[in-house]
Amino acid sequence: MSGKDISRAVIRRLPRYFRYLGELKDEGVEKISSQDLSEMMHVTASQIRQDLNNFGGFGQQGYGYNVSYLYDEIGKILGLYKEHNLILVGAGNLGHALAGYMNFEKRGFYIRGIFDLNPELLGSKIRDIPIMDMKDMPEFVKENDIDIAVIAIPKAAAVSVARTLVNCGIKGIWNFSHVDLEVPPSVMVESVHLSESLMRLSYNLNNYEGNK
Q1: What number is the average pLDDT over the span 189-197?
Q2: Number of domains, the chain
Q3: CA-CA distances (angstroms) from residue 195 to 22, 69, 175, 188, 192?
Q4: What is the pLDDT of residues 121-140, one digit of tens each?
Q5: What is the largest CA-CA distance in the chain?
Q6: Residues 101 and 34 in one domain
Q7: H helical segments located in 54-151
């Protein structure tokens, strides 16, 4: 890549490529053309080639893509062969569901600690991970080499919590609170706004129904 800027649209598609290639790999498929991958993913073959050319191409004329090799290379690009230590901030319904999602470990993301302010939750466990008091979070982050924090708390508290996390040395925040966080450029934030996703679905349904 040699420092080349990659568009966010390309980056958003990479996990999808990885998922489809993983399914093909599990099915024993050894090679696939951009055209066949296009039909599976509903992305044009030229778009696939253009996306992958940002990282070196990986295909061979007349052969297509080696599924196992491309899967591994995209995994490396996504940083999935490194181990990431996470904490979860917020042990409510959403936090509980996120902590129970087993697929994180398969991708190298390990939840090392869970934090909440609710005294009734402190000391209880989710998947054998104890829920700790938020006041203990800064020391825990520093002592356990935590690089990613998952924020699943109301937006009123999210801004101050994010500020604390940045001061502790957190490198990335996966933000499920309904607020846009302002952090230094050195801290990466990926925000997941569930209501926005639902509204996009509503828009698509509304336009489909209007065109019938």
Answers
A1: 90
A2: 2
A3: 29, 37, 13, 22, 9
A4: 999 999 999 999 999 999 99
A5: 63
A6: no
A7: 67-77, 93-99, 103-106, 137-143
132 with 185, same domain: the answer is: yes
Shared-domain flag, residues 167 and 190: yes
Residue 42 corresponds to which amino acid?
Answer: H
Q: Copy the structure tokens of residue 132.
A: 């700790």
Same domain, residue pair 121 and 167: yes
What are the beta bridge partners of residue 190? 174
d(CA 11, CA 80): 14
Domain that holds residue 66: 8-77
Helix (H) or strand (E) holding 199: helix 194-210
Asked whether residue 204 is assigned to any structural domain, the reply reads no
- E-assigned strands of 20-169? 31-32, 65-66, 84-89, 109-116, 125-126, 129-133, 148-151
**Backbone angle region of 166, left / alpha / beta, with phi > 0 → left and psi within -120 to 50 → alpha:** alpha
Token pair 């080499």 is found at 145
Enter the pTM of the model.
0.82
Please give the span between the terminal C-alpha atoms of the chain, in angstroms, as a whole number: 45
